[in-house]
Specification:
By secondary structure, the protein is mostly helical. The protein is built from 3 helices and 2 strands, in the order E-H-E-H-H. Strands 1-2 form a two-stranded antiparallel ribbon. The protein is flat and about 50 Å long. It starts with a strand and ends with a helix.
Length: 79
């Protein structure tokens, strides 16, 4: 599922939201196979997260960032 138009609903720096139309799009269901035994649980979670984020990006047109939960400083130094 992807939400678009939310950046106009409450722009950065604005304390209160204002009315604006947003769009909700639903994609096809995602399916996973059992991860290979050599893949750690953390690697399997990351692979699933990447698949979800890429599917949302395809629906919303957002660019894939490859960085999750990082500080602004870490993102600035990411190649």
């Amino acid at each position: 599922m992807a939400l678009t138009g939310t950046e106009r609903l409450q722009p950065v720096g604005r304390r209160l939201p204002h009315y604006h139309r947003i769009t909700v799009e639903f994609g096809m269901p995602l399916h996973w196979a059992q991860p290979p035994p050599e893949m750690s649980p953390a690697q399997a979670r990351r692979a699933a997260t990447d698949k979800i984020v890429q599917a949302i990006g395809a629906l919303s047109g957002q660019e894939y960032a490859e960085v999750y939960g990082a500080t602004l400083e870490a993102v600035a130094h990411h190649p």
